[in-house]
Amino acid sequence: MSHYTRVATAFVSATHIAKALVDVGFEKVEVFTEPQPLRGIFTTRAVGHVIARRRLVAGEMNDVGFLRRTDGHFDAVVEDMDRERYDAVWMGRLRQRYAYHATRDLLTAKGFEIADEQTDERDTLRLTLRRMT
Amino acid sequence: MGFEQIEVTIDSDGRVELKVAGVQGAGCLALTEQLERHLGGQVERRLTDEYRDTVVEAERLELEDD
């Protein structure tokens, strides 16, 4: 029996979590309206609304999940043996990609267009959007 | 014809800073609040001259009402 830990996040959008997970390298990310089981090398009862499926060829033994709390925010659901792989640096990269997609999607839906997009040597992302008035 | 501009800075840890220019007072606040809701938390904002101009104008109106 495996043991998963839930880690609170500020994420509120399943769609943007899924886009961020693809950006950090997952090839198969699924989004569900009801929580579905995560798969791992051991039997588990862990579930998630967003599930990044493990890539066995990449040495990933377990899925990573995101489970929606009653307050609308998501918890990351990570197998204890994977805590080093999905550490604070990894979560930072995921937060960056989530923020990128959430900001971009909201502002383009409001008529803004991307005027410039750059990433500097410290991996800070700068996005400039404009809307004619 | 002018334009509204938003500069978004996202560091490698996912911290977001917004700089909004050309969006008048309340509209600027509404837009950043919507973004905060999308991002699920606090976003650092920088108020622009347009926002401050609107606030000063509102204070002036309140004084005139008295």
Task: Walk me through what this model shows.
The complex is a heterodimer of chains A (133) and B (66). Chain A starts with a strand and ends with a strand. In chain A, 24% of the residues lie in helices and 35% in strands. The longest helix of chain A is centred in the last third of the chain and has 22 residues, at 88-109. With 133 residues, chain A is an alpha+beta fold. Chain A has helices at 14-23, 88-109; strands spanning 4-8, 29-37, 47-52, 64-68, 74-79, 113-119, 125-132. In chain A, a hairpin with a 5-residue loop joins strand 4 and strand 5. In chain A, helix 1 crosses helix 2. Chain B has a three-stranded mixed β-sheet, with no helix packed on it. The longest helix of chain B is centred in the last third of the chain and has 17 residues, at 49-65. With 66 residues, chain B is of the alpha+beta class. The interface between A and B is medium-sized, with 35 and 24 residues.
Q: DSSP helix count of chain B?
A: 2
Mean pLDDT over the full residue set of chain A: 92
Find the structural class of chain A using helix and strand composition. alpha+beta
Largest sheet of chain B: 3 strands, mixed
* Spatial ordering of strands, largest sheet of chain B: 1-2-3
Question: Could you give the topology of this structure?
Answer:
The complex is a heterodimer of chains A (133) and B (66).
Chain A: E1 4-8, H1 14-23, E2 29-37, E3 47-52, E4 64-68, E5 74-79, H2 88-109, E6 113-119, E7 125-132
Antiparallel strand pairs in A: 1-5, 2-3, 3-4, 4-5, 6-7
Chain B: E1 3-10, E2 16-21, H1 25-39, E3 44-46, H2 49-65
Parallel strand pairs in B: 2-3
Antiparallel strand pairs in B: 1-2
Helix pairs in contact in B: 1-2
